[in-house]
Amino acid sequence: MSFVHQKHLTPVDWVNYTLLAFISLVCLFPFLYVVSVSLTDPEVYVPLKFYLVPEQWSFASYKFVLGNDNFINALKSTVWVTIVGTAFNLVFTFTMAYGLTKKWFPGRNLILGCVIVTLVFNPGLVPNYLLVKELGMLNSYWALILPSITNAWSLIVVKSFMDSLPSEMEDAAKIDGCNDLGVFMRIVLPLSMPALAAFSLFFAVAHWNTYFNAMIYLSDSKKWTLQVLIKTMIIDSDAIGFGPDAGSAGDKAAIPQETIKMATIVLSMLPIIIIYPWLQKYFAQGVMLGSIKG
C-alpha cells in the first residue's frame, strides 16, 4: 500500500513561485508582441502602438516574406550551415572526446593541455580573420563551420560523459571481436544518446543563430544567413527589397515595414521552437539509463 504525500507550500514557496511567474511573463511579453504585430492586418496597423492581440488577423506579412528571394536565399544558407555544421561538430567532438578517454593514447596529456589552454586564451578576431583568409574560405560557408568545428567546453563535457561509461562493456565487446571503431559505434554512441541529443541542440542553435562570423566572412548578400538579413532589414530595408514600397504589387497596398520585420523574426525562430521540445526530454535522462541494471 502506498501513500501519496502532498507537499504544503510555505510562504517562501509562494513568494518564489510568484516571482518566477512574474519573470516568465516579463520574458514572454516581447515575444507575444512580435507575434501579434506580425499577424496584424496591414490596413489596421498603427506604428508605435502596443499590440498584445491583433485587432484584425492577417498573414499578408508572412506571404510577402516567404515570397521574397532574399529571405529564401538566407533561409537556405542558414539551413545548410546548420545541418552540415552540426554534423561536423558532432563527429569531431565525439570522436576526439572518445580518443582522449584512452589513457594509452599517445600525446593525450599534451592534447588535453592544449584544449584547456583555449578555455583561458583566445587569439582574437584579427588572427582568426587572417587564418580564414589564408585558407581561402572568405565568402564561403566553410568559414562558418570549420573554425568552430569543436570547442574546449564541449570536448571536456563529452569526455567526462564517456569516462563514466563502464569499461567492462568495451572489454566484453573487444573479446567478441570488435575493434575500437566497432566499440565506438556499437557501444559508446548508443549509450551516449542523451549527450548526442543535447549537443545536437546546442550546436544547431549556435549555427542557426550565427551572426557575427557571417557578417565578417560573407560579403556576398546571396550567402547571408537569416540573422545577418534581419540586421540589415533593421538598418536599411530598402537596400534588400524590404522597404515600405516593396509590398506594392498592382492594386495591393504596401505592407508596413514593421510587420514585415516581425514576420521575418518569427519565421527565423520557428524551426528552433519546433525542434526543441523533441530533444528536451533527453536533457533529464541519466548517462546509464537502462544500460546496466543490478
TrEMBL record:
All residue ranges annotated as the ABC transmembrane type-1 domain in the record: 75-278
InterPro entries, per database record: MetI-like (IPR000515), MetI-like_sf (IPR035906)
CDD domains, per database record: TM_PBP2
Main location: membrane
Transmembrane segments: 12-35, 79-98, 110-129, 141-162, 183-208, 260-279
Pfam families in alphabetical order: BPD_transp_1 (PF00528)
Localization: Cell membrane
Keywords: Cell membrane, Membrane, Transmembrane, Transmembrane helix, Transport
Membrane topology label: Multi-pass membrane protein
Family statement: Belongs to the binding-protein-dependent transport system permease family.
Protein name: Carbohydrate ABC transporter permease
Organism: Paenibacillus agricola
Lineage of source species: Bacteria, Bacillati, Bacillota, Bacilli, Bacillales
